[in-house]
Amino acid sequence: MGTLIKSPLSKLPFSIITISICAFAFIALLYTERISFLSSTTIFTLSPCAKRSLAKPKDKSADNDEVNYFADDRFEFDPNECSVTSGKWRFNSSIEPLYTDRSCPYLDRQVSCVKNGRPDSDYRHWEWQPDDCYLPRFDPKIALEKLRGKRLMFVGDSLQRGQWQSFVCLVEFIIPADQKSMRRGRVHSTFRAKEYNATIEFYWAPFLVESNSDLKIVGDPKQRILKVDSVTKHAKQWLGVDILVFNTYVWWMSGLKIKSLWGSFANGENGYEELDASVSYRIGLKTWANWVDTTIDTNKTRVFFTTMSPTHQRSADWNNKGGIKCYNETKPVMKKRHWGTGSDKRIMKVVADVVGKMKVPVSLINITQLSEYRIDAHASVYTETGGKLLTDEQKADPLHNADCIHWCLPGVPDTWNQIFFAHL
Predict the structure, then answer these.
(1) Mean pLDDT of the chain
(2) Which segments constitute the Trichome birefringence-like N-terminal domain (predicted)?
(3) Among 169, 85, 220, 239, which Cα is nearest to 417's?
């Protein structure tokens, strides 16, 4: 019969065994936590993934699902790898806008919705969350450092002016009063951050090409004439700018044929031809693209183009058949890939075609799809017309007076600038 060999552990006191087991378990736990920590940070480094917040935002989206940040495999924003067009708006009441229409002195009354009496404020707390990546928050200090010693100019129509005002308001509050200034002009306006030797400018050119609405706005679209073969008069102001951000869309969408002119305005009635909007738009955008390709030095200047900003004039587009345009809408559309009649896909195709063939790289700030959902964020009846706030009588007639083109600020254009900031 074999001899029973006793384990050395049997000779040790019970307390020592217990302590050893506990110590081993504690070391194992530390090791497990270390592996978990390393795996998460390794993802940040190699993917590269974004930092994840443990704070779960209050959600008012349609599915009301909570954010599981530990299961979130979205990566840090990279303009070459992540599309911002696919995503969702998520409500986050814990985050306040960086400014208000009362705190920022540079906002036009047209977009100052709260100051104009808008009673609800939820529209200011929706965050755009791309499906595949994290969009970095706008950081005014970093933005100003990136602009140090540079000129940034937004060029386009009143929607582009809204993006310009949004950008100014996102950074101005951290600049001492004696270190900033604003000069407003009819065509060209400049905000100056003296400490940074930087300017944030807006240049009015609603069609980019020259038109008879460049100085004195022609209110009747039937009387507008576009010089589709020239940007020369405008482009003199674009020379020497370090960062150019262009847009043009809504002025082309009158529903009428565009009076398109070649040569001099002196030709008058005999010099233009009436063309479909998309045809005239293509000619005009090619004229702009040719100027960019033949003039811009890519070692000195970066070029961006903000895609079309949707209008929300038809409530049936989002199945609110009893609604009146965007009036009284308080939540975004939650239907994935919603696309209304206020966004012309022919124009989007023109932009893609023309920009895609340019020699100078143009970064698209693609804001169309994400803005399509935001039926709740327009100025509506909380705005002005003809330089005067809407009267109570006018507010009671939203069918004729609700502005479903321009956006309240703070609001959706802040997200456009968040995307632009991520590209800088």
Answers:
(1) 85
(2) 81-133
(3) 169
d(Cα 3, Cα 143) in Å, to the nearest integer?
80
* CA-wise closest residue to 163 among 408, 424, 418, 416: 416
**What is the residue whose two structure tokens read 């124009």?**
347
CA geometry: angle at 358 spanning 352 and 361, to 5°? Answer: 90
Alpha helices in 112-231 (DSSP H): 140-146, 158-172
Model confidence at 10, pLDDT cuts 50, 70, 90, reads: very low
Task: State pLDDT tens for residues 279-307.
Answer: 999 999 999 999 999 999 999 999 999 99
Strand pairing category for 151-156 and 243-246: parallel
Query: Which residues contact residue 322 at a Cβ distance below 8 angstroms, ignoring those fewer than 6 apart?
Result: 315
CA-based end-to-end distance of the chain: 83
Both tokens assigned to 361: 């790289």
For the annotated catalytic residues, the residue numbers are 158, 403, 406
The closest of 358, 92, 410 to 418, measured between CA atoms, is 410
DSSP state letters, 257-294: -EEEE-S-GGGGGGTEEEE-HHHHHHHHHHHHHHHHHH
User: Encoding tokens for residue 358?
Assistant: 């340019």
Q: Is the dihedral of CA 43, 49, 55, 57 positive or negative?
A: negative
- pLDDT at res. 2: 42
C-alpha dist (Å) from residue 22 to 9, 16, 26, 87: 15, 10, 6, 47
